[in-house]
Amino acid sequence: MAPPYKPPANPYQEQTDHNTGAAWLDGHKPVDVDIDGMVDFARNMATVKDNLDGSTGYLDLLGSLPTQAWDGGALGEAMYVAQMMGFHYSEFRQYFAFLSQGLNNIGMAAQTVADAFQGTDGWSAATLDAVEFAYGDTGEGKPPGLPPGFPVRTWQQAFDENVAKGNGAASGQLDHWTLQSTVSAGLTTVKTYVNQDGMTRTDTSPSGSSGSSGTTTTTLRDADGNVISSSSQASRTDVIGDTVVTTTTSYDGNNHRTGSRTEETTYSGDEVTKRSTQTRGPDDKVTGTTTTETNSDGTQTITTTSGNNKRVVEIGEETEGETSGSLDSPARDAMDDIKTHNYPIAPWALG
């Protein structure tokens, strides 16, 4: 008889309990199904959107941890896995960008319904055409209760127009850039990329630079070759004791500072003991920080701040692919039990 089944144990239960929670859902209020309730519903959608936007920064770990896991070089297969994880992370971030926009759109639709029927006797004045208008079906025109200048172009129409112009990223679309050419001339290297909409991105940087030092200028052009934007980044790397500090400052096309990012990596021998990233806005005020500390027992503590929000994430010690006995299957437990007993050999097995 096989031993009783033991449910799998989470070797990182302490970290899971620490990291999970639904505090970001706070701030809602019950709503009534009436015109005033539609306004409250719109406010709730705005609250959910703001809370979601304030928490998506924590997803940065999904993009940075795979890179850190294979820091210093790895097998080609591992680098391929890291690249694919990066692609999936980018798509995940796009999903949240559209989710945030969807929450905003739903709230605005509810607010539009409320605006259309404020000053009336409520639902008795409501029409299906008005509700359909609020949710994007503008074929019947706007309801009479809305002001004359109320826009009738939907978010989807604006998004489609941006995509048609080769600038779908302005509405949250994920760009897929493909390298078209690399040209080196003297001390300058020019790389040209094109995305799925025909938009072109040109990166001009110092030849032989890995991107850690020097200035890189980026120019975006639409499918017709018209310049959409131009920007530049100046990077500098310094070694201070056991810490490598890289500062990247961004500028717009008029050479006005738009922000900066400072990354510090501290080593103990070949091991990274601390990583920190700090971002600053155009006014040089700190907009966010992320610090990853590797503790003596192999666990990590990641502290992220954004404005007045602070979050601490704990990661358990790396197990190098090993699992505890509690994670074994019932069949494996039964086989182990057989191996530890001196059972008599069946007569037919003696030959």
From TrEMBL:
Residues 204-219, 287-301 have a biased composition (Low complexity). Residues 1-10 have a biased composition (Pro residues). Residues 1-21, 197-336 are annotated as: Disordered. Residues 227-236 have a biased composition (Polar residues). This is Uncharacterized protein. It comes from Candidatus Protofrankia datiscae. The lineage of its organism: Bacteria, Bacillati, Actinomycetota, Actinomycetes, Frankiales.
